[in-house]
């Protein structure tokens, strides 16, 4: 059905994209121009075959794709899982994603996969380990990786530098780019008591290859302080949209993902979020001209 | 190594204290903040279990399933980031769970759900042409080895597992009979197909799958008094696109 318009674009454009969910396939194929690109979670396409891979091959003929890993455990104290790296390489080889990203986090320990993005202390030892792991990933996959800033709920006593100092050193030593998740900035800034705008001001935005936007939930810690939880289960809230505009004003337009992974809505709701990001992207692009 | 070990153990065991050095921005112990990670890990794995075992969930009820899966995910966290295959130890876990020993078929139903999942994600293959076997000289036929589709799964059970699955997942499916059932799962294209087959058909297909010749498979499927119907076996394989290569 898409064969006539098979264009197989490689480069992810400075437009809004969405995290691809199978229940939206028909809507996406019927309204392909409502989004500029799609993002997939790499691990969902690491089976040997079947419907998920067939759908993705089909979509790839029409859309540029960003490949977002959630299972590499870049921040782990132990070595990376070579089998998993090989699976990632196999996927990247046929998918030819325009962007490829992973998280500053760990999820695997003693061969147990804990299925969450767990935090790391910001120390020299962690920088060295993360740089070594990213070098290994980029050498294996043969493509630059974007490293995503995390949503964090705790801090570590041993941390001796800011998240931005940490990310900047990792990027400059490994040659990786950065994925700036604006909702994560808002969540972490609230949880860790710093200014989200100050974070954006200090962030090396010239290294940013992609932006993320998503929804979060609100809770409270033991002392009644607001604790935001990165849930990807709701619309993007207005303060995060404002922070996104603030980011675009500094960084210029960048491919922007609407992340919605839990309580997934009807397509129209997601498309409305994407359209809002697209409007902001085109207005900042117009100002730059 | 110690820090992440301690962190990982505390995630899966709510009785353990928050790991040392994990604090809030004021330097106080992290408490509820650490519990966010605990909750994320367990809830996301429970969700993965619900996706994997919808029939078990129906059979024992949503709340019981959530409680039981809660025990399982702490004892058997995933060994791989490919959550589409998570739960491989669940059948054995169910079998060993004595409070549910009055529902003895649960473990086999869980095996069936796992098999469907792995068949769904198996490699795509193209069957040989329907007349490929007809091209073989009759005296060579019994020496052939056939490569069968990697999505093929067979489950032999003392319980009516296909009927139980159908009754819980399909509208208007009849009540399961009190009988044993052998299940064949195939995936000719992208959709799974499931049907009951006879034990001798299962022996025949299993023997071919293990790399034996047609002649050996025929012998393995033939019980003392009944010769296996080879034609029926070949027809079934061709109907479901199971033969993907013929090795002489």
From TrEMBL, chain A:
It holds the Pfam family MbnB_TglH_ChrH. It comes from the Bacteria. InterPro entries: MbnB/TglH/ChrH, Xyl_isomerase-like_sf. Belongs to the UPF0276 family. NCBIfam families: PRK05409.1. HAMAP family: UPF0276. This is UPF0276 protein GCM10011498_27430.
Automatic annotation (TrEMBL), chain B:
InterPro entries: DUF2063, DUF2063_N_sf. Residues 3-94 form the Putative DNA-binding domain. It holds the Pfam family DUF2063. This is DUF2063 domain-containing protein.
